[in-house]
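User: C-alpha cells in, sequence out, please.
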C-alpha cells in the first residue's frame, strides 16, 4: 500500500534552505537594481492594499522596480554601514528602512516620482483595529437602506433593530464608531454595509539616493539617523 503524502516528514534543513535561497535572491535582485536604475527611494505606506499597490507598480513597470518585505534583508543588500555598503552613501538609505516601508528603484526624474507619490491615494473600507476617522451615529427610526432579510445579521452586530411591517427599524440611537478609537469587527462590518470608507491607502517618500546626492523628505527624522556610522 503506498504511503500517504500527508505522513511524509518535512526536513527542516530543506525549508531553511529555501528561505535562505529566497533571501539571497532578493539581495541579488536589489544589488542588480542599484546598478540598473539611476536612483533609489525609501517609501512608507499607510493602510496597505495589495491590489491597489500592484496597480501602482504596474503604472511604473517600464521605468521602476519596487521591493517590499523584510527590512533587514533589504538593509543587508544595500549595506548597513560605510564598511559594507555596495555604493557610497547607500548605508544612509538602510538606516531609514524601518516599519512599513519599501524600496523604489527608478530612472524617472525625481520631480516625476515626487508627483506620482504625493498625488496617489485610494479610499477603502477600514479594517478591524483601524482608527475611526469620524464618529458615526445612526438615529432611531427606519433603516431603509437595509432589506428585511438583513435584520438578524444586524442584530448580531449589536444593533438594536427590529422588523416593523417588513421594514428594518432602529429602536434607539446607535453609535457605530467614535472618532479616534479602534474599530471593532462589528463596527467595521456595519461601516462596510453603510458604504462608509475610512481607510486611505497612501504612499510617502522618505528619502532619495543617487550616485550624486542624498535627500531626506520626511520631517521629524533625526540627523543621527542618516549620519555615517
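Assistant: Sequence out:
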Amino acid at each position: 500500500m503506498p504511503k500517504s503524502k500527508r505522513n511524509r516528514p518535512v526536513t527542516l534543513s530543506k525549508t531553511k534552505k529555501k528561505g535562505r535561497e529566497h533571501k539571497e535572491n532578493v539581495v541579488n535582485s536589489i544589488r542588480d537594481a542599484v546598478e540598473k536604475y539611476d536612483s533609489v527611494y525609501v517609501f512608507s505606506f499607510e493602510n496597505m492594499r495589495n491590489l491597489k499597490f500592484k496597480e501602482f507598480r504596474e503604472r511604473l513597470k517600464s521605468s521602476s522596480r519596487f521591493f517590499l518585505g523584510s527590512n533587514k534583508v533589504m538593509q543587508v543588500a544595500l549595506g548597513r554601514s560605510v564598511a559594507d555598503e555596495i555604493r557610497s552613501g547607500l548605508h544612509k538609505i538602510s538606516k531609514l528602512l524601518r516599519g512599513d516601508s519599501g524600496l523604489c528603484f527608478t530612472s524617472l526624474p525625481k520631480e516625476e516620482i515626487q508627483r506620482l507619490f504625493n498625488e496617489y491615494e485610494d479610499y477603502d473600507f477600514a479594517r478591524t483595529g483601524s482608527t475611526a476617522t469620524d464618529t458615526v451615529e445612526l438615529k432611531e427610526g427606519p433603516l431603509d437602506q437595509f432589506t428585511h432579510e438583513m435584520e438578524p445579521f444586524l442584530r448580531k452586530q449589536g444593533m438594536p433593530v427590529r422588523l416593523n411591517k417588513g421594514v428594518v427599524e432602529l429602536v434607539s440611537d446607535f453609535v457605530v464608531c467614535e472618532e479616534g478609537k479602534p474599530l471593532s469587527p462589528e463596527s467595521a462590518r456595519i461601516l462596510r454595509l453603510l458604504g462608509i470608507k475610512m481607510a486611505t491607502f497612501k504612499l510617502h517618500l522618505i528619502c532619495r539616493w543617487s550616485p550624486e546626492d542624498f535627500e531626506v523628505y520626511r520631517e521629524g527624522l533625526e540627523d543621527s539617523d542618516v549620519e555615517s556610522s
